[in-house]
Structures are given as structure tokens and as C-alpha cells.
Amino acid sequence: MKLYEYEGKRILESCGVTVPKGRLVSTPEQARAAAAEVGGPVVIKVQILATGRGKAGGVKFADTPDQAAEVASQMLGMEIKGYVVEKLLVEEKLPIAQELYVAATFEEKTKGRLMMASASGGMDINEVAEQDPSKIQKVSTGNWVPMQAFQAKELAFGLGLSGKVGSAAQGMFLKLWDAFERYDATLAEINPLVITTDGRVVAADAHLEIESDAMYRQKDQLAALGILDRDDNSKPPTEFEVEALKIDKADYRGVAGRVVEFPGNLALLIGAGGGSLTLFDAILRNGGKPANYCEVGGNPPVSKVYRLCKLILQRPGVKGLAVMTNVFSNSRVDTLARGMIKAMLDLGIDPATYPITFRSAGAFEDDAYAILRKYGVKYLGREVSMEEAAKAAVRMTEGL
Ligand code: GDP
Ligand code: MN
Questions:
Q1: Using CA atoms, how far apart are residues 400 and 337, in angstroms rounded to an integer?
Q2: What is the CA(204)–ligand 1 centre distance, in A?
Q3: H/E element, 203
Q4: Could you give the CA distance from residue 289 to residue 271 in angstroms, rounded to a whole number?
Q5: E strand or H helix at 276, and its extent?
Q6: What DSSP element (H or E) covers 71?
Q7: 196 exposed, middle or buried (CB, 10 Å; 0-12, 13-18, 19+)?
Q8: Mean pLDDT, to the nearest integer, of 358-363?
């Protein structure tokens, strides 16, 4: 579950991290009162489940309570990054000397956890990582032992922090780690962690995500902070996504769903052991324009594949279909072929002439290929890598 900034800050505060003095508001009048309470210049920030608010006009400043009310009335009701603004956080405006980045999360390489930090805070950390990875300090901690004081020290030194500020930063890193562990977070990020001109170290922003599978044991602790369990990991589902959800929910067998809508022309039915993510990335990397993301795996019945395939083919703007998977170990390839062909015949589409990239292999692949040949569909075998298959799908959509 993704948390709002104000929720993340409540968690951080409960673990001793210093956060700016402030208040959550939903009317201009409340914003005026909050600014008066803070007593000085304030920063006013939209509370939405997206980052990059600063660049999108979701972070503004005000010097007086009247100004705060004025700014709040402009921001409330605004649409930013697909969200309508209903709540604002009004906080003391920190006098910034330096902006740092720090986050605790999981690490693929070590199959463990890490804390990373950078002196290039306030920026998109992915951009920093791309431009100059040496600007990001990391300490890996494994899975069982929490981050140790010496590791916090290593991070602070790596950022060039020393003296009182260095000690304060180290303390902050350990408290952030504590929050990350105690709340079963998958990500606990502070960007920027601000060093103020008067030497305080304050979390100016907070981005936390809680592991959904841990909600059973986090519910009470979160509720005590006014954070309620909800199903809003992402934007509200589109009509198309709701339809797909219904298809997946109607039959418990196998995964055929988790559909996300995109504005492109290439319909996707992709999967097998993380293959869907790999393939989706490969399609984007090669310049393709997906119309949707749709996973298959876990041996779904033909009926499910058929209904989903029909749905994604009917989406306006779709001009080609890619059915691609890793080598299946627990699903039947012929299921995909059968579902796909039935969907096309139902829609009056001729499989022999419709642009299709089919690359799936594994159990019952010979049956699948026999069906495809019968309907005149060309297919790629298991000797074609997923990257090559993605390239082929992108080439196919050129000129469509
Ligand atoms: P994000 O863009 O959604 O990550 O929102 P942030 O809360 O991180 O704010 C974006 C940027 O606004 C920060 O990197 C700062 O440069 C600036 N900012 C936020 N809060 C303050 C503040 O209290 N004082 C000052 N001077 N700048 C702030
Ligand atoms: Mn931020």
C-alpha cells in the first residue's frame, strides 16, 4: 500500500525522525489557521499518491496566513498527475542549506535489504543513478540483522557529512531504518532529507510503501496513526481495467489479468515467471507502444484467455497482438493459442492476416503450433529470445 506524504511522516515521526511542524488541511480556511499556527513562511503541498509534485506545480510557498489561504484555494480541486487534489499539507518552510536523498528498500542483487543515500537530494534519484551512479552511496544489510551504527556512519561519511550534522544524519538513517522494519515497508524514502541553515536534519518529504501481505499484522499499528487499509495502490482502474478484473475474478484458475491500460496500438498477452515484466520493458526499450499490460501464467483455462484476448483486441486503437511468454513450466502453450484463435474468430478477425507476434514455448507447444498452422498464423519458436521476440513485435507494429 502506497502512503501519502502526511501518512509517511506520521510513521517516521513515530520512530523519532524529525519532520517539519505542520498540519493536514482540506479547506482554505484551515490552511490559513495552519499557517498562523506554524507562525512564519509555509510550504503547501498537494497530497497525492505520486512523486514529482514539485515539478508539476504541487508544491507552493506562502509568507502569511492570508497568502496560504489564497494558495490553498488555487491548489484544492486542481488535477495533478491524474489525481484531483483534496488535501494539502501546510508546513513550516525549511531554510534549506542542503538536500540529501536517503532510502531503505530491497535489493535484487543481494536478495536482501539496503540503505542508499546521496548528496544529490531533491532530484529524481533514477536520473542521478543514470547520470552518475557513483553519486549514490549504498550499504547492504542482508535479511536478518538490522542496519548497524557503523553502516550509518559509512553512509554519512560517504556523503561528506561530519561534525554535528554528520551525527544527526547518522541518527536519522538509523531511525529511518527502524521505521522501514517496524512497519514492514518495501520502500521508505526521504527525498529531500534537508539540512537546514541552522544545522537541523529534517525529513522534508516522505514516500513509504507497506507490503500488502503484511497488512494483517500492520493494520492496528497503522490505524493508531490514522492510516487505514485501502486498495489504492495506483490510480483508480479504468473501465477497461475493471472489465479485465471481472474476467480474472470470475475464475480462480491461473493468472490471466492484472491488466493496465496504455495509449498504444499493440495489444499484449505476456507472461511466465516474470517474463511479462521483461517483455514489457523490452517492448518499450525498442520503441513499441503497448495498448495494455496483461499477464498470463499459472495455467489459466482457455475460457479466461479467450475472454481477456477478446477484451484487449477490442480496445480502440489496437492494431496488432503480441502473445509472448518465457518458456512455460506450469502453463500450457496450447491454452494461449486456443484462447487467442477463439477470440479472433468471435470478433470476425482472420488470424491469417491479422498482425500477430506469437512466441510462447513449453508444455503442449506442439499442439499450440498445430493449431496456429491450421489458422495460418506464423509463430516464433523457443530459439528466438524474448528480446528478439519483442523486437519482432515492435517491427510488426511499424506502419500499422
Ligand atoms: P516532490 O516533488 O513530490 O518530491 O515534493 P517534495 O516535497 O520533495 O518537494 C519538492 C521540492 O520543493 C524539494 O526538493 C525542495 O526543493 C522544495 N521544498 C519542499 N519543501 C521545502 C521547504 O520546506 N523549504 C524549501 N525552501 N523548499 C522546499
Ligand atoms: Mn520529494
A1: 23
A2: 7
A3: strand 201-203
A4: 18
A5: helix 275-285
A6: helix 65-75
A7: middle
A8: 95
Q: φ, ψ for residue 17 (rounded to 5)?
A: -75, 135
Ligand 1 pocket member 96 (CB < 6 A) = yes
Segment among 26-30, 241-245, 252-256, 332-336 with least mean pLDDT: 252-256
Indicate the residue type of 123. M
Average pLDDT over every residue of 367-396? 96
53: CA distance to ligand 1 center in Å?
Answer: 9
Summarize the confidence of residues 338-365 as an average pLDDT: 97
Q: Check if the beta carbon of residue 296 is closer than 8 Å to that of residue 333.
A: no
How crowded is residue 239: how many other Cβ atoms within 10 Å of its Cβ? 8
The Å distance, Cα 151 to ligand 2 centre, comes to: 24
* pLDDT (tens digit per residue) in 166-206: 999 999 999 999 999 999 999 999 999 999 999 999 999 99
CB 312, CB 269: distance < 8 Å: yes
Which cell numbers hold the place of 86?
483534496
> What is the number of residues in the chain?
400
Please name which of 113, 135, 114 lies closest in space to residue 124, comparing C-alpha atoms.
135
Answer whether 120's CB lies under 8 Å from 101's CB: yes
- 99 in ligand 1 pocket by Cβ < 6 Å? yes
DSSP 2: B
For residue 321, the Cα-to-chain-centroid distance in whole angstroms is 25
Could you please report the per-residue DSSP string of 75-111? HTT-EETTEE---EEEEEPP-EEEEEEEEEEEETTTT
